[in-house]
Write a structure and sequence with these properties.
The protein is α/β, with parallel strands linked by helices and 188 residues long. It has a single domain, classed as Rossmann fold, CATH 3.40.50.2300. The protein contains five helices and five strands. It has helices spanning 11-23, 34-45, 65-76, 91-99, 113-187; strands at 3-7, 27-31, 52-55, 81-86, 104-107. The protein has a five-stranded parallel beta sheet, sandwiched between helices. Helix 2 (34-45) runs parallel beside helix 3 (65-76). It is rod-shaped and about 110 Å long. The protein starts with a strand and ends with a helix.
């Protein structure tokens, strides 16, 4: 089960994808404009982000809508995998989408529901591998940072003890100096 945002300006496509993905066990939110998608992505960025975004490439009033959704989704959550699903099978759009970070690019007329679900499963697996890899890389770094913090605390303690010793040593030397000068003054 994944949290998926579906973005499309065609109501029948939007609701058809929502039904398909919910039937497959996913939690689905929908947006019918770039502005709605942006608002939902920003709201989710502060909590539970989407694992997957499925977006149409071209809206009736915005030929670059999918590119905007793709950019926003990745900027807010680099782990979010974006699948571009479009009615226009243009090589330039496909290459551009992939270069900008899309996980895959499917055409509505050619892709079956099964192919979309397979791409979503592949994107989830890919995302999960990245999360595990990040954990493998950064968990040891967290341990090193904790050790450094402990070492810093120890150094502060040692510095405080040295300062205390230094102050005590100064007072003792001052006491000895005062005692010596008062003895010299009393022996005259």
């Amino acid at each position: 089960m994944a949290k998926i945002l579906v973005v499309d300006d065609e109501s029948d496509v939007l609701h058809g994808l929502q039904a398909l993905l919910q039937e497959a066990g996913h939690v689905v939110e929908t947006a019918d404009s770039v502005e709605d998608a942006r608002s939902i992505l920003w709201r989710r960025a502060k909590g539970e982000e989407f694992e997957i975004v499925v977006t149409d490439m071209r809206f009736a009033n915005d030929a670059d809508a999918g590119a905007h959704v793709l950019a926003e989704a990745i900027a807010l959550s680099p782990l979010t995998q974006v699948i571009v699903l479009t009615g226009f099978a243009e090589v330039q759009d496909a290459v551009g989408s992939m270069q900008k970070g899309a996980f895959s690019y499917l055409t509505k007329g050619d892709a079956s529901p099964r192919q979309l679900l397979e791409q979503i499963d592949a994107a989830i697996q890919y995302r999960n591998r990245i999360v595990l890899l990040n954990d493998d890389i950064f968990a040891p770094l967290d341990d090193v940072l904790k050790q450094l913090a402990n070492a810093q605390s120890l150094l502060r303690s040692i510095t405080a003890q040295v300062k205390t010793f230094s102050d005590s040593r100064r007072r003792i030397l001052q006491f000895v100096a005062d005692s010596t000068s008062s003895r010299k003054g009393s022996s005259k």
